[in-house]
Design brief:
With 313 residues, the protein is mainly alpha-helical. It contains twelve helices and four strands; from the N terminus they run αααααββββααααααα.
Length: 313
């Protein structure tokens, strides 16, 4: 019983307390791919701990109901727990109700998760089929172009989609960098990660780790793809920054120009953060410290559930 309680407390602590710490740690997007891994590790650690707590609780119930009622009573009341309390019908009914609610909650969360993921996959697949039907292929890129004046570039069902508006505001170098960015999304399976986290946010509404985590995972996925894009060929950070501003504002921006602060006024927050990140690289010492902290946090999140399962009596 002690193991189940320890795992449950740990899962709640990570779900409610970790988001504030992780947000500060990954705010600047330093080591974006590792920041993404750290957020996913926190989510996985929480889910595994909660599942293990439920498993240990069910095992305790199967081992013997009287022992369970005594164990719970002593966990809560300590030496004040007497047979008059833990053998009473009211106490046993309350404990049974708690177990029933926990099981139903877990099943409901699993059902909401499955429904959200299924709907997302179906919507993406339908959009991908429609794009391939009405769009035309951009020679030599594998991307599909839609005749839409609004600038946009994204992935749908394994296909890179560009609009005519995006092509009109991007020069050749910027277009190549944007395509590299979208290919990084596909190779990193970022769409599957985002769909999975969106399902968790729907399955556990109100839980900060999944609610706030969805936005952070989306932001870090974009930044991770940005990093991959500037590593390809002649990709340069200023070129990608200019491409982001051009798509966000619908106005062509020369790839080698200096971007004034006012140029970002019409961009969304995520775009502004990504552009500033491209143009203002952190110092080596700060980057190393941040990456080290994220690596330590990821390792701790991965090992703590197993440690609690092994060490808790």
């Amino acid at each position: 019983m002690g193991t189940a309680a320890a795992l449950a407390v740990y899962a709640l602590a990570v779900a409610w307390c970790a988001p504030a710490l992780l947000t500060r740690l990954t705010a600047r997007g330093i080591g974006a791919w590792l920041g993404l891994v750290t957020w996913l590790a926190a989510m996985a650690s929480t889910l595994v701990s909660a599942a293990l707590a439920l498993v240990f609780l069910i095992r305790t119930v199967r081992a013997g109901w009287p022992e369970l009622t005594l164990a719970v009573c002593r966990e809560v009341a300590g030496n004040a727990c007497t047979p008059v309390i833990y053998r009473s019908a009211l106490y046993e009914f309350g404990l049974a109700a708690v177990l029933f609610v926990a099981s139903v909650t877990a099943l409901a969360a699993a059902w909401r998760y499955g429904r959200k993921v299924q709907r997302s996959h179906r919507h993406t697949a339908e959009h991908g089929r429609a794009v391939r039907i009405v769009g035309r292929e951009l020679p030599g890129t594998g991307a599909v172009v839609l005749e839409d004046s609004r600038p946009a570039a994204y992935c749908a069902a394994g296909t890179i989609v560009l609009t005519r508006g995006a092509i009109d505001v991007l020069d050749d170098a910027q277009l190549a960098t944007v395509l590299a960015h979208e290919r990084a999304h596909l190779s990193g399976h970022h769409h599957l990660i985002v769909v999975g986290v969106r399902g968790l946010a729907a399955a556990f509404p109100g839980v900060p780790l999944f609610g706030r985590g969805l936005g952070e995972v989306m932001r870090l996925s974009e930044m991770s793809a940005d990093d991959a894009a500037v590593r390809v060929g002649d990709g340069r950070r200023a070129v990608l920054a200019a491409a982001l501003v051009a798509i966000a504002t619908g106005t062509a921006v020369p790839g080698e120009s200096l971007l004034p602060r006012g140029a970002l006024a019409a961009a969304a927050y995520a775009v502004q953060a990504r552009v500033e990140r491209m143009l203002r690289a952190p110092s080596r010492s700060r980057g190393l410290a941040c990456v080290t902290l994220m690596a330590v946090a990821t390792l701790a999140l991965a090992l703590l559930p197993a440690a609690l399962t092994t060490l808790t009596p």
